[in-house]
Amino acid sequence: MKGIKFLLTGVLFGIVMTKSEAISWYRIQEMFRFQSFHMYGIIGTAVVLGAIATFIIKKYKLRDYEGNPIVFTPKEKSVPRYLIGGIIFGLGWALTGACPGPLFVNLGYGYLSFLLAIAGALAGTYFYGLIRDRLPH
Amino acid sequence: MLELIRQPWAWYTSGAVIALVMILLLFFGKSFGFSSNLRIMCAACGAGKNIPFFDFDWRSQTWNLLFLVGAILGGFISSEFLSTGEAVQISQATVQDLQQLGISAPDGLQPEEIFSLEALFSVRSFLILLLGGFMIGFGTRYAGGCTSGHAISGLSNLQLPSLIAVIGFFIGGLFTTFVLLPLLF
Predict the structure, then answer these.
(1) Cα distance from A38 to chain B (closest Cα, Å)?
(2) What is A69-108 written as a DSSP string?
């Protein structure tokens, strides 16, 4: 059962997203209205600790549990795809109050209406694949 | 201990656990990026037959689908065993702003006006969920990542593209908050 560790890490992710209230539409509204430090504190803490971990992994050339080097693939250089794609995602994030992870965590929590948003997200991903060659990247 | 876990978690605890999730995945030889699952699911449903973007070995990404299943389970476990059922404690300023739009103060985790099953039968909620979801799927794939891939993993690795993407997330989010929501409500 090599997969069980991914399942359990996912469980931890689902729990932290719920207990931090980051899956709540209200919290996302509060964030986009700059009326609380809560979401900024969460993301900021994760990024600062993540950056320290990334720095240590690179500096000491740490390996994963199978002994392979941990590699970080640099993102391709571009502006339009990140900016335009980011804006479109941001529009949807504030509408549904969820980014891709919380769409599924909310479903598990019992909010079945997120099935509709998940169907929309799959359709949007499919549509991107369909017209990808015609978009500026 | 369980009582402590059942309370809402402080931002620093939450941020630290999210960083731990990212670090665990790195030590498992993977990387933290949730929205890739949407592409994997399209590929698993056979979208690769007609569209090259979905024609890849999605079975090698099964680990990420397991992570997704875990995330759903984590949400279920939280609501069944780790919740006090209390309302989200958002700031009074947000409560007032939302009340002006006609959205009631929190009673649980989500506003009933959008997410209750009754609301689903209103054109407004139906469109918010379907079109909102569509833009999430389209935008994250176009930008090559979402909050986990860009805001957490990318910024942790000091990637300029991720900073551009996060700025984009905010431009879009602010437009929805201050232009679209007042039009919709």
Answers:
(1) 6
(2) BP--PPPPP-SHHHHHHHHHHHHHHHHHT--HHHHHHHHH
